[in-house]
Design a protein that fits this description.
Elements lengths: L2 E10 L2 H20 L2 E7 L4 H7 L7 H7 L2 E6 L15 H8 L4 E7 L17 E7 L15 E3 L3 E3 L6 H20 L5 E6 L5 H13 L7 E6 H10 L6 E4 L1 H14 L9 E3 L4 E3 L18 H18 L2 H19 L14 H13 L1 H8 L1
Parallel strand pairs: 1-2, 1-3, 3-12, 5-10, 8-9, 8-10
Antiparallel strand pairs: 4-5, 4-11, 6-7, 11-12
Bound molecules: nicotinamide-adenine-dinucleotide (NAD).
Length: about 375
């Protein structure tokens, strides 16, 4: 019996809907080629449009439905014109991150041939790194859902940077395992702890836990870099890094920087993983400026879908899903190399529909290519 994984899908707002539908179509094509598993989707209504229509930001029991699924696939949530009475935007997805303690934020940045390369150095073609951003504490702890900033009248505001041992141990182990996995796929297998341990006790603690865990993973090259030096190195020699683990705010900033090095928002895939749940979404928003125009680049979502398949392979033991994830990644790479993927985002002539159609064709060619090389 082929394994079936249940996916809770929140298409959300604006281009979130289009890129999610593209992801589902490409994942289905990969499942068909690889065989041995299938994906079944249960849609959950949520977002700014849903809020405008119903007064709720997510359907009743939507969070519970997401919690019982094997994975959550999300497009994008939010429209600047639709807000709560206090002026904040509609953001039920932040509650999901908190509720399911999705501490490991995985944000790959990979250079694709013929896609924009922001650095003049030809070595930039070899950029292939992952920012691992802790996503439940750090300097974001007092913000968002916790709302714990210390406000002293109108004269001072204090935010807390929180580092806890249990989360940090799990985060670093996640980072080492990710580096091991990448090593098995031909990457260097290196993990860099990015911190500010020379100044902050919280960061010295973060680094100490990294060093405590390091001996458990002798096959991974481990080192440290201060965050300011890391910002310099991400411009000077980003190709020299593999996996970089850091607290929430540093990851927030450096993952955007890394994403910009290899294109733009339409390429920025993201996984948010906890002990029992995983949420997969492109890092971009609903892009109101291009919504409804078939102009969105679906690749960030499609590559997030590949991260989801990889996660499900680990979770369920269905290795075919890891094959499907790799097939999608290879298809994106080959599509750029052969100039068959030309997103409008980068000045090309292909909108969401054309990109999706070509991706499905690329994925479907694996058998033909295998037969030809046999
Ligand atoms: N996780 C999320 O769901 C998430 C993340 C960021 C922003 N938002 C929300 O999205 C709305 C718009 O936010 P924003 O404009 O600041 O950010 P955005 O990411 O939606 O758009 C920023 C710019 O990037 C472009 N862009 C983004 N994704 C693209 C894609 N796939 N292809 C081509 N171009 C793309 C947009 O056209 C726009 O010019 C807001 O309501 C915001 O709160 C949601």
């Amino acid at each position: 019996m082929p394994h079936t994984s249940q996916i809770a899908v929140i298409k959300g707002d604006g281009i979130g809907v289009d890129v999610t539908e593209a992801t589902i179509a490409v994942a289905a094509a990969a499942a068909e080629v690889v065989g041995g598993f299938s994906l079944s989707y249960r849609e959950v209504q949520a977002g700014a449009g849903y809020f405008a229509a119903t007064g709720r930001d997510i359907e009743p029991d939507g969070e519970e439905t997401a919690g019982t699924a094997d994975a959550i696939l999300l497009g994008a949530i939010g429209l600047p014109a639709i807000r709560h009475a206090d002026g904040t935007e509609i953001s039920p997805h932040l509650r999901l991150r908190e509720r399911f303690q999705l501490y490991a934020g995985v944000r790959p940045a990979r250079a694709y041939p013929n896609a924009p390369q922001r650095l003049a150095d030809p070595d930039a073609a070899a950029i292939d790194l992952v920012i691992l951003r802790e996503s439940t504490e750090g300097l974001f702890y007092s913000a968002a859902v916790h709302n714990r900033s210390e406000v002293i009248g109108d004269s001072e505001v204090r935010d807390t940077l929180r580092i806890t041992r249990p989360t940090t141990e799990k985060l670093h182990r996640f980072g080492f395992r990710l580096a091991e996995k990448r090593k098995a796929r031909g990457r260097p297998g290196r993990l860099t702890c990015v911190d500010k341990a020379n100044v902050f006790r919280s960061m010295a603690f973060f680094r100490r836990i990294f060093d405590e865990i390091r001996p458990e993973f002798p096959n991974v090259d481990a080192d440290h870099n201060y965050v300011d030096a890391q910002a310099l190195d991400l411009i000077r020699q980003p190709w020299a890094f593999d996996v970089l683990v850091m607290e929430n705010m540093f990851g927030d900033i450096l993952s955007d920087l890394a994403g910009a090095l290899v294109g733009g928002m339409g390429m920025a895939a993201c996984a948010e993983i906890g002990d029992a749940h995983g949420l997969f979404q492109p890092a971009h928003g609903s892009a109101p400026d291009i919504m409804g125009q078939d102009k969105a680049n679906p690749l960030a979502a499609v590559l997030s879908g590949a991260l989801m398949l990889d996660y499900l392979a680990d979770k369920t033991g269905a290795g075919a899903m890891a094959d499907a994830a790799q097939l999608i990644e290879e298809s994106v790479y080959r599509g750029f190399a052969e100039r068959r993927l030309r997103p409008m985002e980068f000045g090309g002539d292909m909108g969401t529909t054309a990109m999706t159609r070509e991706l499905i064709a690329l994925v479907g060619e694996r058998e033909t290519r295998r037969a030809a090389s046999a």
